[in-house]
Amino acid sequence: MSGKLTNKTALVTGGSGGIGAAICELFVSEGAKVMIADIANEAGHHLADRLGPMAEFVPLDVTQPAAWTDISDRFDNDDAPLHCLINNAGISGLRNIEDADFEWWQRFLSVNADSVFLGIHTLLPALRRGEVSSIVNIGSTLALKANGELPAYCASKAAVRHLTKSVALYCAHRGDNIRCNAVHPGSTMTDMMKKNLGTDEQAQKAAMSARFAVHPFSKALGRIAAPQDIARAVLFLASDDSAFITGVDLPVDGGATL
């Protein structure tokens, strides 16, 4: 039985856990060969083993240009095209403009924004060989509506948002059959988020209240997002179902930005 990504090759950064793992799982179920690219070796290998022969773990520090060059070497011939690049790797954290130092700021820009530039810059030739290819960048609803408690995070995701549009225009003007879109998750219950909430029940409730004060959950649907909610939106933009869509912002937030 064929799927929406049959005979496609996809690379998913930050693919070993959370939203990334959900994307990898869904893509494999839809027929794609998936490269799980992550700095977390043990988790990445475990996920690849669980998903079977259509998944492969590749170590990748998304902040390092040389690491991206090593990835591009895997696609350095006509028999190895790349059809889907999913720039998902990212970090989060709360520090306002006074509490954040320059090292904190640089770390967010490096992991959340520079990595997307490096991935697209390095892998565009491989995506062109895919003939019909798609880039999906994972932004945030905080790229659409900023908050004063997360200046580094907001700025990094806003950079991703406009890079997405610039790349979409560039590829269209060149005549490349490469679409570039952004998915903007609202608060999503990932393992990273659970870890940040702590282990004490009372502390968890306080942390959740603080988080929703700056990154609200669904006003319309009344629940926090699951990683699978985000993965399904990414699948739509990666597949031919969205063949005439490029440069868009797709919030997946249950109405939080309404």
Short description:
This protein is of the alpha/beta class. It is 45% helix and 15% strand.
Radius of gyration: 18 Å
Sequence of secondary-structure elements: EHEHEHEHEHEHHHE
Total DSSP helices: 8
Strand order of the largest sheet: 3-2-1-4-5-6-7
Helicity level: 40-55%
> What separation lies between the terminal Cα atoms?
39 Å
**Major sheet summary line:** 7 strands, parallel
Overall pLDDT score: 91
What is the oligomer described by this structure? single chain
The helix/strand class is: alpha/beta
Shape assignment: globular
Count of DSSP strands: 7
Stretches where pLDDT is under 50 for at least 5 consecutive residues are none
Question: In percent, how much strand structure appears in the residues?
Answer: 5-15%
Describe the structure.
The chain is α/β, with parallel strands linked by helices. The protein is built from eight helices and seven strands. The chain has helices spanning 18-29, 41-51, 65-73, 102-129, 151-174, 191-197, 201-214, 227-238; strands at 9-13, 33-38, 55-59, 84-87, 133-138, 178-185, 249-252. Helix 1 (18-29) packs across helix 8, helix 3 packs parallel to helix 4 (102-129) and helix 4 packs parallel to helix 5.
How are the SSEs placed, and which strands pair?
Blueprint: E1 9-13, H1 18-29, E2 33-38, H2 41-51, E3 55-59, H3 65-73, E4 84-87, H4 102-129, E5 133-138, H5 151-174, E6 178-185, H6 191-197, H7 201-214, H8 227-238, E7 249-252
Parallel strand pairs: 1-2, 1-4, 2-3, 4-5, 5-6, 6-7
